[in-house]
Amino acid sequence: MGQKGIIFDIKKYAVHDGPGIRTTIFFKGCPMDCWWCHNPESHKIEPETITRKIVTSSSTKACHERKEVIGREVTTEEVMKEIEKDMVFYEESDGGVTFSGGEPLSQPEFLIDLLQKCKKRGIHTTLDTSGCASKKELLNIVGLVDLFLYDLKIVDDEKHLHYTGESNKQILGNLKTLAEKGEKIIIRIPIIPTVNDDQESIDQFGKLLSTIDILRVELLPFHKIGEEKYPQLNKVNRMKDIQKPTKENIEVIKESLEKFGLKVKVEE
Q1: What angle do CA 46, 37, 244 make, to 5 degrees?
Q2: Rg for the chain (alpha carbons), in Å?
Q3: Interval 197-252: pLDDT, tens
Q4: Which H or E run includes 209?
Q5: What is the phi/psi pair of residue 94, to 5°?
Q6: What DSSP assignment string belongs to 134-157?
Q7: Nearest-CA neighbor of 50 among 226, 256, 197?
Q8: Closest CA to 217 of 195, 239, 191
Q9: Which residue segments constitute the domains of the chain, with CATH numbers given?
Q10: What distance in Å separates the CA atoms of residue 196 and residue 206, rounded to the nearest whole number?
Q11: Residues 18-64 pLDDT 10s
């Protein structure tokens, strides 16, 4: 039967989660609690109930509540069936499957089983990870992942702990380990106003990443997508008053990082 795991979504025809056309599998569970997370339903590994308000009349603003369970247990065979449905698109676009979340490394056995099955089928694999896992768990997947999308939030450890609930010492150590192993890595940095968009933070990113062998840096500007999920989950949105960065600010950050010899791309 293979391994079982908990997922909360499968996104078809994704084009921003790695090369080509991809199927993205969203794992439930994450050890971090980033203030700006746009997938707060991914934090707990267990399925959970959210309450959605459905507007039934725009004129009277009448609405009713609908409860919905987020997260379901699946086997690796069930997931592979969904992945294999899109094989023709992978072949035509040099695409594949991306494992995201949450944090896929929070369910290591489930992840390894899926990676091994994809490897046998010749399916390109991308892992979108925060790197917040043990070195042992990371080394167990080396050789099974074709591309790492490595999410780096903040370089300063004290600041990282404040805004994510976790130290980044293991995260930075794991990043260096992957680079030393010759893995293909794209660094993804969410640009969050008032958190990591100041010049000191950008210089810290530049100094660190200029010493590591990576393909490029992708900047992900903060956005408001997902903010309606917080009240539905009875969670506090700590970034509700923060506005998305301007294109001018993002361009300044891009140019600053390029001065460190980095290849930088802005993802919208």
Answers
A1: 160
A2: 19
A3: 999 999 999 999 999 999 999 999 999 888 989 988 889 999 999 999 999 999 99
A4: helix 199-209
A5: 55, 40
A6: -HHHHHTTTTT-SEEEEE---SSH
A7: 226
A8: 191
A9: 4-266 (3.20.20.70)
A10: 13
A11: 999 999 999 999 999 999 999 999 999 999 988 877 766 666 666 77
